[in-house]
Amino acid sequence: MIKTRLVSLLCALALLLSAIPALADEGGDIAVPVLDNPPAFEIPDNEALAFIREMGVGWNLGNTLDATRDGGGDEMSIEGYWCGVKTTEAMIEAVHAAGFSTIRVPVSWHNHVDADFNISRPWLDRVQEIVDWAIARDMHVILNIHHDESPDFFYPSEACYETSERYIRRIWEQLAERFGGYDEKLIFEAMNEPRQKGTDWEWWLDEDNADCREAADCINRLNQVFVDTVRATGGNNATRYLMIPGYDAAPRGALSELYALPKDAADNRLIVSVHAYTPYHFALEESGTDAFELGANPQTTEIAGFMNDLYEKFVAQGIPVLIGEFGARDRDGNTQARTDYAAWYTFAARSRGISCCWWDNNFFAGNGERFGLLDRAKCEWRYPTIVEALVKYGGTD
Q: Which residues are designated catalytic?
């Protein structure tokens, strides 16, 4: 382990020193940075890690099928409730044409189920329609359970466990049945950011906190229910790749001693699922900095640090890791910084055998958390250099 960590530190230093930003032209145009000589992290030669590499760089259809509206109304109108527009095949084609090879399709189901958690046919048909648009373009697709955290559906505590298990089992029974004939390019993700919402530790796993330990244990058990439910349906689901989150899907949740991958009848078909809006002060914090610097500095060191830990615990042991969400919010003119960030982040991840999916919640007036790259109303890329950086450094070879 000491030797592995030393190799990782040396590789991280080489990666930091390799970041040389390209100079913008005299007109001040945004430019994709030049990042040379990626460090030689040793990536085990196995099918699962090759699969992650084939997934390349991904894009999230965020704030869309995952939107919720608990006040009632037409369930089919919820799709445009948060992002302002419904998905079209032209949008999926734009994502594909730009060079993204993976689309993550977050879906919230609780507004679309009956008392027995049976999913409404119109909603399931709509989800399948969007999945099919991506599959038809030979893309990888990630399908999940998203904003359904509630004691009425799933919530990681002992008091809510019986209902949570029933919900997870029933939703995945239906999804496994509906999509069972799809090949391995369709990936199932158990849950999105499972956590104890509304608590002081919602976004921070405290291993010494009894409630956190209880939550982590419940998440492990629900992940096992997910795997067992999908595998029991047979066919392609017997060997389908499945994504497994830890507490709130944070790197810390997966790196914790409390995290355990489920037992699985399939060999090495479980993917560690992580979200990382890092560094927080640049990527996510509302009042954070608009600057991101390449080279050896605390920002790049923070990214390299958590990626080193994921590499050592999982990738170096042959276990695949995928960062299903990352990104940096627009801060009114910091496009060059976001372009540099996109390049550096995917460059660092790719060198460690990890693939990433940018969180896109659409770009439209009034959207405070502006992660969106695609103006879906116009079906145009608002920040083409960020897209270029993502595809150049995170895409398939």
A: 146, 193, 325
